[in-house]
Amino acid sequence: MSDDILSIIEKVCTRVAAGDFENRVPKLGDDPQAEATRQAINRVLDVTDAFVRESGAALTAAADGRFHRQFLPRGMRGAYAHSAVTINRAADAMRVKVEEIEHAKAARFDLAGELESAVQSVSEQLATAATEMGATANGLSQFARDAVADAERGLGSVGALRDSSDQIRKAVSLITQIASQTRLLALNATIEAARAGEAGRGFSVVANEVKTLATETASSSESITNQVSTVQDSAKGAIRVLESVTESIRQMSELVDGIASAVDGNREPGQPGLSQLAEVLRAEVTRFVAKVRAD
């Protein structure tokens, strides 16, 4: 084979090695050996060119998601055929992975939608419950304040009753003293009437009546004193009970005020209540879901 023929073959191979698969070895003359070499080299170039074009087209289609476009292995043998099968298997694997990713993406969207729906429902229920709790707590707080006021008025009334009982006891004590003195005077009058004889008989009857009335008055005073003592003891017990109840209601009022503050969010500056927290939760989940869908 002449040097010119080798030079032509070298140039063609150099261009092909540089990526120019359009080059082919031209006719090299009438020498059968040279012609056979030319045809063999050109077949290699034809097969290589076809492999490169077909593999490029199959991989480009796979990159675009058109997995139905696979490598057509017709005319490929040996390593070329094996590589064609490998490319098709890789494209199939890519298709499976893409389908899995799409399925996962759809599932993520569905989950995000369900999460958003659930959180919105919960936040709405929480906001409604917070409103109702706030109204109830405010109502209870007002009720507790009214109860404290009523209990304090009751304390005042019972205290006034105790003071009145003290005044009654003092008045009864004075009546008892007067009755005692009246009995003494009646006794003296009876003695003097006896000394007067027949002339003092009428006065003696009057003196006995006064003595009897004074005795009955003293007895009634003693009964009243006992009743007043009973009333005072009851008043003391009622005062203790009312004081205990008032303190308990006052503590309950403070607790209810705390609940109302926590619900309304005005216990501390910058601290949200349940309604505000529900809105914050809904806003954050909406933002999260929007980000998930955008990704």
Distance between the termini: 65 Å
Report the structural category: mainly alpha
* Averaged pLDDT: 77
User: What is the overall shape?
Assistant: rod-shaped
- Helical content, roughly? over 70%
Largest sheet: none
Top-tier CATH class of the largest domain: Mainly Alpha
CATH 4th-level superfamily of the largest domain: Methyl-accepting chemotaxis protein
User: What ranges have pLDDT less than 50 throughout 5 or more consecutive residues?
Assistant: none
GO cellular component, one term: membrane
Protein name: Methyl-accepting chemotaxis protein (MCP) signaling protein
Keywords: Transducer
InterPro entries: MCPsignal_dom
Overview of the molecule:
The protein is mainly alpha-helical. The chain has 2 domains: 3-101, no CATH class; 102-294, Methyl-accepting chemotaxis protein (Helix Hairpins). It has 5 helices and no strands. It has helices at residues 3-17, 32-63, 78-196, 201-264, 274-294. Helix 2 (32-63) packs parallel to helix 3, helix 3 (78-196) runs antiparallel to helix 4 (201-264) and helix 3 runs antiparallel to helix 5. The radius of gyration is 59 Å and the shape is rod-shaped. The mean pLDDT is 77. Keywords: Transducer. InterPro entries: MCPsignal_dom.
Quick summary:
This protein is mainly α and 295 residues long. 85% of the residues lie in helices and 0% in strands. The two termini are 65 Å apart.
Layout of secondary structure:
Layout: H1 3-17, H2 32-63, H3 78-196, H4 201-264, H5 274-294
Keywords: Transducer
Domain Methyl-accepting transducer: 97-264
Organism: Actinoplanes lutulentus
